[in-house]
């Protein structure tokens, strides 16, 4: 809903796009591009806007984000994966899912920066998604912005439950603070094992797709220490904290 409603996070994203140097291209790992097998990389010249959600106001389905693709960059990324013996396929038909266009429309409303989207894979664990990001670390030197689009917590079922878990907010905050501590102290090993080590990991992420983009960006950071640049919680349980690695 931040695409059409003002919020702390929508204002943060608008300001962020103005505050950081304008990138020459953007690479996005999104929670909503979860692929079972090979890595898929968008390679179209002008990908479509995907409205991959249901039962929201009609105005959301009218939004288009006509940002161009970056086929040459996509091919370069595919080569980086191939050199690491990871099978990556270029997809000229895949469009921008809402994990891409909602934040980028706020950051860069002109839709004039080329984008490449790379799939995540919830079936292979945090360490391998981290490895995906590591392969892209060199792109930072070319003024390419790498984004992980997900959520520090994402238990939508709990948000919509009639009778909430009594200590749910505390469980969310314990998890959120644990993640912050590990990120700012560069404790990568703990983060890669968050499902076993973090407090209430399963409550905050019943499924892992919204956490794994953070792992990919962590890999791409080249072990750079994280800086917390935004904090927000919506519906009491959805933590929307943001971190930069530079």
Automatic annotation (TrEMBL):
Pfam families found in the cross-reference section: LigB
Superkingdom, taxonomy of origin: Bacteria
MF terms (GO), sorted A to Z: dioxygenase activity
Cofactor(s) listed: Zn(2+)
Domain named Extradiol ring-cleavage dioxygenase class III enzyme subunit B: residues: 10-239
The entry's keywords: Dioxygenase, Metal-binding, Oxidoreductase, Zinc
Annotated family: Belongs to the DODA-type extradiol aromatic ring-opening dioxygenase family.
Identification of the protein by name: Dioxygenase
């Amino acid at each position: 809903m931040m695409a059409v409603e003002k919020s702390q996070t929508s204002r943060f994203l608008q300001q962020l796009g103005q505050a950081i140097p304008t990138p020459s291209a953007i690479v996005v790992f999104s929670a909503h591009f979860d692929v079972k097998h090979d890595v898929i990389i968008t390679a179209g010249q002008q990908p479509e806007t995907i409205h991959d959600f249901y039962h929201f106001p009609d105005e959301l389905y009218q939004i288009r984000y006509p940002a161009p693709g970056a086929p040459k960059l996509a091919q370069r990324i595919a080569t980086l994966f191939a050199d690491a013996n990871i099978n990556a396929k270029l997809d000229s038909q895949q469009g921008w899912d809402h994990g891409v266009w909602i934040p980028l429309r706020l950051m860069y409303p002109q839709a004039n920066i080329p984008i490449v989207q790379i799939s995540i894979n919830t079936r292979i664990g945090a360490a391998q998604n981290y490895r995906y990001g590591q392969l892209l670390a060199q792109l930072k030197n070319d003024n390419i912005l790498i984004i992980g689009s997900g959520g520090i917590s994402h238990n939508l079922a709990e948000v919509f439950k009639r009778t909430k878990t009594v200590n749910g907010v505390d469980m969310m905050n314990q998890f959120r603070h644990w993640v912050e501590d590990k990120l700012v102290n560069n404790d990568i090993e703990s983060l890669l094992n968050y499902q076993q080590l973090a407090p209430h990991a399963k409550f905050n992420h019943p499924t892992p797709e919204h956490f794994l983009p953070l792992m990919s960006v962590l890999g791409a950071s080249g072990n750079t220490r994280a800086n917390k640049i935004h904090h927000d919680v919506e519906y009491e349980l959805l933590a929307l904290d943001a971190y930069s690695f530079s």
